């Protein structure tokens, strides 16, 4: 295809773009094709190019989570959207409002409230969005390689040239994949890396087969279905009491804020709602939180952490600290020094790791369980240790990145702050006018159930005030007035008519 022409006076591009001839395969770039492509043996099906793109400098945003979505939202309503082409690359059609997932799974909100559609960002045609997974980034050649994904909201199903895979393919049982299908490369003037992180199983056998995770709305839906299925099975007349207890044992692995909030929501759902409609199962459900550390909520102050653990114990939520999980088989967790623990549902919330894309990037990264791309305080990606300086035209933010010498936690709060700052900065154009302010660490809060919470930051506080701060955060997390109205409406309906889950 005819390559798109990029403006030569792009103020966002701090070094001239490479000028070697464009690649012969499907390419949306004027940038160099000097590096051999791993997709060079493409089938003819992938050679029909997407429509030509406008001749403007291109900003590529890789990822549409908290940081990528917020950045795109801000850029699309700022002057830069008239002078630059903004392209979003992500496998997902919607962005998950992760802090609302546990509440959605436990029936407080409808699932629609916990996600925002990406394609509604900006005015029609203002942003370009491709539903793809970025397979590789060529920082020297200023281009990335993409592969189309479809199915289950883009959850890792590869598109074939002859259309969307059928049911058989969706179940992973077959289907034909032709090399080169749905693949293309695209050049950039400015690249924003915001691919987030992936669940870290720490190599524990059986996690991905036997546990649920809590990263997306699909995960939240699966959890709700699984909890209800366990209640239905336990209410059948065929099982002994011991088996019913096993079915109604809900295990959460990971005592960080995600695990603790999930345990609190499940406890409230089970004791406040489900046992009213399954009265014969009174006294049988148990909720357990397992963690290898010696306390839950490790990043909070010790007093707050002890407060939360004590509250859980009083409600018969089992707090199992200093426990090493050896592995999982269906319905069974093997715990060091404890042996086999049977469960109905287990949710793995024990940690995150870098995506394979970040792992393969040749840039400066942090050490430790989760490698993060190091940036300076203007969020510019740093070259690897052996070289010095920044990678021109490349920024990174969100869970995937950290500012060297000023570590911030991998939270939505930080991702939002950085995205808002970067949108402003890209518009200001003259670097170094901005000073990186606004990215300092803020307070943490966590819900521990039954109208109680803990807040660490600006002092430590607990109780109803902390719960109110957390609950009102639900309104802040949404990205549109439409969802704010829906949340308020649902709160009122839940108050007077019970949760929707009770009717399913
Ligand atoms: C259940 C849960 C509850 C949470 N609660 C809170 C909370 O209360 N408060 C808080 O501050 N934080 C919370 N967090 C943390 C918060 O969700 C993360 O810090 C935040 O999502 C990070 O934003 P991000 O943009 O870096 O990544 P993400 O939001 O994870 O988005 C990453 C995006 O990149 C895309 N992507 C990944 N790889 C590729 C690729 N190769 N090609 C193209 N696209 C790619 C993904 O599909 C996704 O769209 C919670 C997290 C979870 C899981």
TrEMBL record:
Pfam families, sorted: Pyr_redox_2 (PF07992)
Similarity comment text for this entry: Belongs to the NADH dehydrogenase family.
Biased composition (Basic and acidic residues): 165-181
Name this polypeptide is given: FAD/NAD(P)-binding domain-containing protein
InterPro entries per record: FAD/NAD-bd_sf, FAD/NAD-binding_dom, NDH-2
Spans annotated as Disordered: 1-54, 160-181
Low complexity compositional bias, start-end: 10-47
Superkingdom classification of source: Eukaryota
SUPFAM superfamilies associated with the record: FAD/NAD(P)-binding domain
GO cellular component: mitochondrion
Domain FAD/NAD(P)-binding, chain residue ranges per copy: 58-418
Keywords: FAD, Flavoprotein, NAD, Oxidoreductase
An annotated Gene Ontology molecular function: NADH dehydrogenase activity
């Amino acid at each position: 295809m005819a390559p798109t022409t990029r403006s030569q006076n792009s103020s966002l591009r701090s070094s001239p773009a490479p000028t070697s001839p464009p690649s012969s395969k499907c390419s949306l770039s004027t940038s160099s094709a000097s590096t051999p492509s791993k997709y060079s043996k493409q089938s003819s099906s992938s050679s029909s190019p997407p429509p030509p793109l406008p001749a403007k400098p291109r900003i590529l945003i890789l990822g549409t989570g908290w940081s990528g979505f917020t950045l795109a939202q801000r850029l699309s309503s700022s002057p830069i959207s008239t002078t630059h082409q903004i392209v979003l690359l992500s496998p997902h059609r919607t962005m998950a409002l992760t802090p609302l997932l546990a509440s959605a799974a436990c029936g407080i909100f409808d699932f629609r409230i916990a996600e925002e559609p990406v394609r509604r960002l900006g005015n029609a045609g203002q942003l370009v969005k491709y539903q793809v997974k970025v397979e590789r980034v060529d920082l020297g050649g200023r281009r990335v390689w993409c592969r189309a994904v479809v199915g289950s909201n883009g959850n890792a199903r590869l598109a074939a040239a002859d259309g969307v895979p059928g049911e058989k393919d969706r179940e992973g049982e077959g289907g034909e994949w032709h090399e080169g299908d749905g693949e293309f490369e695209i050049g950039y003037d400015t690249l924003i890396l915001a691919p987030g992180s992936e669940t870290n199983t720490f190599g524990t056998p059986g996690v991905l087969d036997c546990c649920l995770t809590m990263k997306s709305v699909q995960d939240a839906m699966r959890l709700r279905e699984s909890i209800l299925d366990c209640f239905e099975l336990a209410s059948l007349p065929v099982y002994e009491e011991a088996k019913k207890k096993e079915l109604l044992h809900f295990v959460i692995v990971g005592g960080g804020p995600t695990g603790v909030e999930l345990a609190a929501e499940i406890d409230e759902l089970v004791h406040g709602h489900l046992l009213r409609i399954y009265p014969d199962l009174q006294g049988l459900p148990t909720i357990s939180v397992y963690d290898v550390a010696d306390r839950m909520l490790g990043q909070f102050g010790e007093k707050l952490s002890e407060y939360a653990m004590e509250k859980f114990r009083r409600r018969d939520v089992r707090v199992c600290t200093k426990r090493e999980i050896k592995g999982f088989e269906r319905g069974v967790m093997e715990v060091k020094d404890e042996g086999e623990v049977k469960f109905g549902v287990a949710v793995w919330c024990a940690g995150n790791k870098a995506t394979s894309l970040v792992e393969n990037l040749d840039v400066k990264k942090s050490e430790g369980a989760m490698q993060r791309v190091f940036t300076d305080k203007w969020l510019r990606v740093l070259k690897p240790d052996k070289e010095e300086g920044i990678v021109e035209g490349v920024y990174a933010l969100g869970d995937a990145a950290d500012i060297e010498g000023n570590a911030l936690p991998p939270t939505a709060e930080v991702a939002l702050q950085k995205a808002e700052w970067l949108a402003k900065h890209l518009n200001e154009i003259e670097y170094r006018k901005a000073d990186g302010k606004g990215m300092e660490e803020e307070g943490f809060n966590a819900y521990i159930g039954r109208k109680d919470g803990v807040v660490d930051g600006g002092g430590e506080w607990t109780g109803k005030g902390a719960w109110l701060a957390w609950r009102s955060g639900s309104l802040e997390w949404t990205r549109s007035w439409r969802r704010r109205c829906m949340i308020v409406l649902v709160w009122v309906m839940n108050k007077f008519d019970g949760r929707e889950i009770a009717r399913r």
